[in-house]
Amino acid sequence: MAAAEGQWVLMATGRSPTNIAVIKYWGKRDEALILPVNDSISVTLDPDHLSATTTVAVSPSFPSDRMWLNGKEISLSGGRFQSCLREIRKRARDFEDEKKGINIKREDWEKLHVHIASYNNFPTAAGLASSAAGLACFVFTLGKIMNVKEDYGELSSIARQGSGSACRSIYGGFVKWCMGKKDDGSDSIAVQLADETHWNDLVIIIAVVSSKQKETSSTSGMRDSVETSPLLQYRAQTVVPSRVLKMEEAIKNHDFESFAKLTCADSNQFHAVCLDTSPPIFYMNDTSHRYVLAVHWLGILIISLVEKWNHSEGTPQVAYTFDAGPNAVLIAQNRKTAALLLRKLLYYFPPEDKDLSSYLVGDKSILGDAGLHSIKDVEALPAPPEMKIPDQKFMGDVSYFICIRLGAGPKVVADESQALIDAVTGLPKGL
Amino acid sequence: MAAAEGQWVLMATGRSPTNIAVIKYWGKRDEALILPVNDSISVTLDPDHLSATTTVAVSPSFPSDRMWLNGKEISLSGGRFQSCLREIRKRARDFEDEKKGINIKREDWEKLHVHIASYNNFPTAAGLASSAAGLACFVFTLGKIMNVKEDYGELSSIARQGSGSACRSIYGGFVKWCMGKKDDGSDSIAVQLADETHWNDLVIIIAVVSSKQKETSSTSGMRDSVETSPLLQYRAQTVVPSRVLKMEEAIKNHDFESFAKLTCADSNQFHAVCLDTSPPIFYMNDTSHRYVLAVHWLGILIISLVEKWNHSEGTPQVAYTFDAGPNAVLIAQNRKTAALLLRKLLYYFPPEDKDLSSYLVGDKSILGDAGLHSIKDVEALPAPPEMKIPDQKFMGDVSYFICIRLGAGPKVVADESQALIDAVTGLPKGL
């Protein structure tokens, strides 16, 4: 039902980034509140290339809360959305817009319904933490429209209840999710370790394996690990606390060697815990033989390539990290290293069609730095000398690459023309 | 140099089995003495199908110690062979054979040289613990000829110094290698938990991936894990001790459910520790793309198949375990289950050529139990119903299957015609 004629529609639009953990979150100590078994640390990715945009509209004419994701209506009845909505409504404040003649008292928010439209500027199914960006944006934008004054730490704690890692998307740069100790989860919040300008040499290249696959929920996998992996508790209680301290130091000191070693080791340990789970967690369910092999081969090849390259240089050039999804995330020390890395990656994973510029999204200028101006340059790439395996190529295993920098946290989109909801109808534009 | 005319050649021949760990050995606390970081438990495999046979010859005419493996002379100068030779010579006793007119005093053994010929009745390179069988046989047969009277525990401790897991091949049935506490390693010995008749329902099926690959030494991998994996110490100190107790109980009580769960969990945890190693340990070096994929796919498919089958039956039917080599070892509760398992395995991994009987070695009668009398029966096999992945087949990924039972420990081969060395020349037969 659209807004009734003559009634106001109040709107706010926000944009939130996605993030990639360098010290991994795996395992909850409380499923309902989403409280983790260990701290985690992430880098926030540039929202220009990977982000969620969300418009929240409020109108006395809306009979119920509704939500649309990428243009399709989805149910808001899930516990996670409801937790975030409830927690933001609890903190809502008086709001007045004299020009529009809108005056909402704190207690009115309980009765007012919202329409929420959200959109990811990257494929939802690509396994790029779309739920982290989406839930952070949901909470951030709801908070803006409801005039919530709580600090970002408290917002992060609410986003956490929507999707654990969403709490880290509340800030830009380097972010730590402190597991907290309290049973009510109020101290399980994210804090910013450093903003995106602190260490702006880093360049991230993501190999997206396939956008055809559903982003599998990590909830059941985490639960299985907590219940069956003897190594998980040791990791959470003993290994991660010391790694978090070292990672904080590495970030503070721009110490890429430590940063890379910790990132790679923690990615591998996270997958070790998945393997130590009973039954072991693989990328196996309902996928094709070709896909399973492509994912494993990509992982093995990229890990081997990075380890051998780092070893041959004597000091780490690149860090790799793999989430529960299939994509490889590579963090290069600087732009020059990223360009060299791209040459090695494109040697093994050339594009299936000849259009190089659609094969690398994000900061396409890295192609020029890598000396790759056309597909001919890719075809002429030499085999990475540090690799001793046969120099076979794997066309089609990678859907596309993303080149991206660290980025800022959530922002209000002030330009009202960017809103995803029509200010008159109160429904998503284009519906 | 052959035995000089008129001089005697004394010979002994022994045969030793190979073994498969169900609680894994991974990591040494002392590299020189080969002292492990945790206890391990293995099953000994039937030597009729997998074993090493070794003939040791002694003659005053031999100017030096020499050894031949599968007909090719190899160097005996390595520290491991030398340790075993030294330890056995130390314990040598007076020997007399009136008929042959041979009289060797304890102190003479130091001056007498040996010729050793060893032969595996399976491909050395197949990753089937040939070094465990070989070193156990080396020590056992040397001990026999030198009239060593020490008990099997002490023999196992000597075999351990040749190849860690060789100490477990000194017994049949179920064997535990106690890590020991002493710095000199004298209490790091194997003990028999139960002989091969104790639980004789078990049937083992091994999928041999390829016999073209070299058996890679696990020494450097273990060292890397000990030095870099934070999870290894926790596994060794906390997880394994409790698993060993539970495994001993399971074996004692013929409790297949516990046996299978512990076996699978420990195989997966061993591989988790390999992944937690920096750089992570994969089957990657100097192998082809096809081989790497075949090994990973075999592992993923077989683990998934067994986990899903066990889950669908409500109670474990089969346990899987993977060593550092590429082969899959499957332990079935009984012959009926093994036959069902074989049908599932042959559905996915049919033989490349049409000769079924050379595709299954060992106890070929299992083919009849599985209703597989010809290649047509294999081609007509239905897809395993518990698997939801596409029912693709992977011809050529498995070289052959072995069907085998538990077996006895080392034995003297009394039939002198079976000796590998010519009693006149003192050199390997056929040389």
From TrEMBL, chains A, B:
Pfam families: MDD_C, MVD-like_N. InterPro entries: GHMP_kinase_C_sf, Mev_decarb, Mev_diP_decarb, MVD-like_N, Mvd1_C, Ribosomal_Su5_D2-typ_SF, Ribsml_uS5_D2-typ_fold_subgr. Keywords: ATP-binding, Lipid biosynthesis, Lipid metabolism, Lyase, Nucleotide-binding, Steroid biosynthesis, Steroid metabolism, Sterol biosynthesis, Sterol metabolism. One of its GO terms (molecular function) is diphosphomevalonate decarboxylase activity. It is an enzyme of class 4 (lyase). Residues 204-413 form the Mvd1 C-terminal domain. Its EC number is 4.1.1.33. GO terms for cellular component: cytosol. It catalyses: (R)-5-diphosphomevalonate + ATP = isopentenyl diphosphate + ADP + phosphate + CO2. It comes from the Eukaryota. SUPFAM superfamilies: GHMP Kinase, C-terminal domain, Ribosomal protein S5 domain 2-like. PANTHER family: DIPHOSPHOMEVALONATE DECARBOXYLASE. Belongs to the diphosphomevalonate decarboxylase family. Performs the first committed step in the biosynthesis of isoprene-containing compounds such as sterols and terpenoids. This is Diphosphomevalonate decarboxylase. It comes from Paspalum notatum var. saurae. The lineage of its organism: Eukaryota, Viridiplantae, Streptophyta, Embryophyta, Tracheophyta.
